[in-house]
Amino acid sequence: MKIAILGGGPSGLYFAISMKLRDASHDITVYERNRADDTFGWGVVLSDETMSNFEGNDPVSEKMIRDNFAYWDDVKTIRGDEAMTSSGHGFCGIGRKKMLLLLQQRARELGVKLEFESDMSEEKIAALKTSHDLLVAADGLNSKTRSIYADEFKPEIDMRKNHFVWLGTHQKFDDAFTFIFEKTEHGWIWAHAYQFDDDTATFIVECGPEVFKAFGFDKLNQQESIALCEKIFAKHLGGHALMTNANHIRGSAWIQFPRVTCENWYFDNVVLLGDASATAHFSIGSGSKLGMESAIMLADELSSGKPLEDALQSYQDERKLQVIRVTSAARNSTTWFEEVERYLDLDMMQFNYALLTRSQRISHENLRLRDPEWLASAESWFQKQAGSNSTRRPMFAPFKLRDMELVNRVVVSPMAQYKAKDGMPNDWHFVHYAERAKGGAGLVFTEMLCVSHEGRITPGCPRIGEEQLPVWSRLVDFVHAETPAKICAQIGHAGRKGSTRLAWDGIDMPLPEGENWPLLSASAIPLMEGNVVPKAMDPADMDMVKAQFIEAVKSANAAGFDMIEMHAAHGYLLASFISPVTNIRDDEYGGSLENRMRFPLEIFHAMRAEWPEEKPMTVRISAHDWMGDEGVTPEEAVQISAMFKAAGADAINTSSGQTDKAEKPVYGRMFQVPFADRVRNEIDLPTLVAGNIYEPDHVNSILMAGRADLVLLARPHLADPYWTLHAAVELGDAEQDWPAPYEGGRRQANLLAERARAMAT
To answer: Which of 212, 316, 478, 635 could staple 265 via S-S, CB 3.0–4.6 A?
Structure first.
């Protein structure tokens, strides 16, 4: 093939090398607009895993790079006068200029032509596309090729809000990858520092937009900006200067990070590579890794014997998925640093843990493999904060709300069963909830218990009132007598989402004609076309519904429930007032957030007044309607939570979505945790969280990082009522109690797990 590569960075050079190794007869030219020894970064970070990939592809260049490495195993966090170090992270660094020179050398050895100071115009790029079999655009995050053919590649560029400047120093940071957080008169500013050769370290300074402007970095030239950074970080620089290699740039050289994604990575004979196709934030150090590993896969596909179109399609299909995993982690890390001031008041132990796990690539048990001693100290710290002397995992730490004490932080999430008859719970509900209480969770939620017949979601949804009291009392008595679990009644009203079929008969679909019942909502907006149009509530309706909630609370107390939760999420009645999507009223209950919150707060106050002072009460909210600015946003959710806190809520159960069928949710592992994190750490109120959480590692990571206080699992508890007991076995936790009649099962489960671990090692 005759191949033109635009961009002589790591990905472009490594692709040229990889192709020549597969077929020396390829005619390959690399066009680089800068000089051979120009570079505008300092160090490149690569992991042991990445180096193994390089060794398998080209042992020669791998050895050239490895011979010039600076190694470190530790991550050190400095916050003001506090410092903490954890080990076992296994990274290495090399100067970007050194690595480029080595790759240039290797490429020349293999017969690759390198042309420097080749600035590409649109006409030149078009000519190369015509004259070559393949045009590889490895021309960086500001790719000219991507811009010229934007209609084909369909790029999206998200400019992140923090500002940073890439500097170097001769101060030594050779003992650890070091994060330095300094509080200044204008707010927090921080540095990412690591050694990359015997004499030089990268020193990236970062801050939020408010601090950036307050210091006047936007008006300073480079030398003034560097001098100010030297002053801020003076005690960490040991008298050494900070240096720039971006003197060609006018202004201060501070930039914001562009998060680049592309719908398509190729068209015709043009393919994007490296930062041109997708970018990963510098805070996870994966930009060069991604580009070079993409180069390997592209070379493999092009050498597979497939037609060019098929090879490029396979490359895009396979590699795009792998890159998304890393760029998603990078997005998590980016967001963490953008919101870091939320965490800077956490205890140093928890702050350090949150920093290490910010991208979600490093999990709780992965930290144990890296540094078991440090993690053990972190777990001990967490238990002490919970009032325990245990050294067990965070999920097994106790938790207290008012006078309710939970034995652990695992919660059975509310899950509709659709098995009631005319609002009456039955043996299904008794067995379902009793089994999960026996399964080891600290707290068990009921599904939403409806306050009236018309407030049911479906004909199979249970009520709570005087008529249902004997059934709920029997369940609560069993849970208290036979298990250490506590039990919570979630109380709500379906609103416009009522009068629908059982889930397996067509979720949210209206009942057959003649079987529907009248509905109430904030506004007369049906859930979907064909569903019952609800009545917009008038004052008499509000008084009636308030009385129904009060009676439900009285019944929950008479039944002995340990806690109640007001359901104000998912588009049900109270949520329909909160969301501007479902509330288009023009009276005192519509319009501003304060007005939209008026009725839900009235209900909350009425419920709290009837609920015993010593028992906790929480509220479930939809922290994101997933409808852009039209609905509730995470920012507004903080205000909503603060209002409920002021009213006396003991915790907020942060859920999201299900407000309207036009929603566009973004699902993923632990996808609702950021909402709980934000509420918890911005208004200092405990939070509960659910949402694609299914492993003990997820639970422990969320808790230890201070992102929520209780973790709800739904589907895992449908699949396994004894999820908590089995999680303890999986983790080798021999302290977990089982029901006495099941002691033989506990012994056998632990014995089999020990054997499996022994065989695995």
So the answer is: 316
Looking at every residue in the chain, the average pLDDT score rounds to 95
Give the integer Cα–Cα distance in Å for 57 and 51.
10
- Residue 251: the pLDDT is 59
Amino acid letter for position 704: M
**491: enclosing H helix or E strand:** strand 486-492
Measured in whole angstroms, the distance separating CA 307 from the mean position of its chain's CA atoms is: 39
Indicate the helix (H) or strand (E) that contains 66: helix 59-66
Catalytic center residues: 572
CB atoms closer than 10 angstroms to residue 605: 12
Cα 19 to its chain centre, rounded Å, is: 37
Compute how many other C-beta atoms are within 10 angstroms of the C-beta atom of residue 481.
7
Distance, CA of 583 to CA of 522 (rounded, Å): 5
CA trace torsion 356, 361, 366, 367 (10° rounding): 0
Least-confidence region, from 46-55, 133-142, 338-347, 520-529: 46-55
Cβ atoms < 10 Å from Cβ of 322: 13
Instruction: Report the alpha-carbon distance of residue 673 to residue 680 in Å, rounded.
Output: 10
| 235-271 exposure pattern, b = at least 16 Cβ within 10 A, e = fewer | ebbeebebebbbeeeeebbbeebebbbbebbbeebbb
Give the SS3 label for residue 260.
strand
Q: What is the DSSP letter of 318?
A: H
d(CA 544, CA 59) in angstroms, rounded, equals 77
Q: Which residues contact residue 662 at a Cβ distance below 8 angstroms, ignoring those fewer than 6 apart?
A: 627
192-213 mean pLDDT = 94
Q: What is the CA radius of gyration of the chain?
A: 30
Q: What is the pLDDT of residues 473-505, one digit of tens each?
A: 999 999 999 999 999 999 999 999 999 999 999
Mind listing the pLDDT tens digit for each residue in 648-704? 999 999 999 999 999 999 888 899 999 999 999 999 999 999 999 999 999 999 999
- The SS3 of residue 135 is strand
pLDDT tens column, 95-111: 888 999 999 999 999 99
Res 285 pLDDT > 80: no
